[in-house]
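Encode chain A's predicted structure.
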Amino acid sequence: MVNLIDKLSDSNPQLLRELKGRLKALPVGIAVIISMLVQLLLFFTQFSGIPNEKYPFYGEYCGLRTSYEQQRIQLQEQYYQLQHKFLIYSDSSQFDAEKIQNLRQRIAQIQEKIDEVNGKFNLEFCPVNSINMQKWWQHHYGNLFLTLSIVFVFTLIVAGTYLLINDLSKEERRGTLNFIRLSPQTAISIFTGKLLGVPSLIYLLTLVAVPLHFWSGLAAGVPLINILSFWAVLIASSIFFYSASMLFGLCGSWLGSFQPWLGSGLISLFLVVTMQVSYISNHNSSYVTSWLMLLSPFSAVVHLFPALGHTYGNLDLENLQWFYLPIGANQLGFVAFNIVNYTLCSFWLWQAIKRCFHHPNATILSKVQSYQLVLCFQVMISGFAVQQFTNNENWQNVVSANFILLSLHNLVLFIALMAILLPHRQAFQDWARYRYQDVTNNYGFWYKSLTQDLLKGEKSPALLAIAINLVIATIPLLIGIVLLPVDSLNSDVFHTLSKIKLILGVALFFSLMMIYATLAQIMLMMRTSMQANWAISTVSVAIFLTPIVFLSLGVQPDKNPLLWLFSTFPWASLEYTATTTIFLAFLGELSVLTLLVLRLTSQLKLAGVNS
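Encoded structure for chain A:
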């Protein structure tokens, strides 16, 4: 044990530090006892519903009811056939008195049997020897297995993220995080130690319940490979959410004690919503929102254990495609794609974690990293919009809806990019001072190296970087407009849109995003300590308040399309506006953008001179 501790201390001192602080006798004993009590509670809660002598006759497991229902259906079919024959031989053209008499006797006999079977349905309770206990036990183990799976998801992800955010928040408040930064360990080693060590009691609590989970699953007839696949997806999803929580812990320390509650609460809300969509709704797998659903482990639960969800709906994951690849056709491909998806997302989160840890005052990602991130995101999410439709599918509605959904996903992405890339006032001043002093001995403020600085510089304005990211994001939309037969679309979303209008709509989206980014950058240049709050408020009002006000005042896109062209959602009014009007609106937005850029440029020059 001493040698093991020494090796652990040499390989990852942070992990040893976390484990020594948490794996003590009392906390470990409490975690084991809680896990055992929860298992007993779940088992006996399920066991309390075992059928007995007062099991209702109409219950699911009453075999007598099932057999009587089958008898009644067969007798009713015979009764209708005899009645039909009776009508035939009662007709004057085929009248046969002897056959009519025989049919009357047989009809009376069938009626007596039907009355006898119907009388059995008046029984209040099912006879004990007629209860299908084998079926009940199989469903019992299946429900226990499914319940444990759901408990594991919430326990590992929600409780683990709360502990990680709370730990980083405490480290930041106490100042110990700065001492950790001075250690020779890498950021990957430090945060791997936290990821493995901080939720160690949660891991122990879960590990104690794993045998019951495997046993109940195998007893319910679930293949072992499916159970192992579920755990592979759950581990990958936990790493993803833990990585996101550690990044939030590094960047959101200003929230104080509210930070861990906010982070774990948002993740809980996401899991609850995706669980409801997975288990209740019949989500169409042809939409790009399937990527968002794959970030929830509940999609794997539905896909891997469809027989256990006999009381729920189906997520339609069997038809899931990514660039025509049928990733939902078999479970191995689905699990592999899930793990790749989680791995890519976790990779970018760790890039941000490393940067924020070593450079807490810098932007979350560099500009070059943002280009790579947006490209990766566009490839991943656009793949779900490229579907091979069957003849029965309304592909026109799906294509139109995916166009809108891609735009909404990109809107959220660029709101995040503004927060990630835009530097604050102090960084601006440092950059402007450097540029101005360097310029005095060269060729003027705007010279050739400025382009490289704007493209890759750490403290330079991020407008050019955001513009490049916008170009990367709009390429899939433009390719879809050019290649698809958009002019022939007759969907519920778009009715009379041409390719020219859709291209102008993309141009409006581009100019609006640039206007919002420039506004945020100008707000961050203000001489106040609350410039970040001003930037957030201004951009939020520009993005969300305008459509809300329009809808509140009854300004409909079909009646006042011109106003909606200048909102965050110009797509709503494109089909009601002339092409010339859309082009003029685009020129108007370019004019506003030009004025804002000139204003920002003058601020930068002034900051360089004064500093």
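Residues 2-48+134-357 form one domain.
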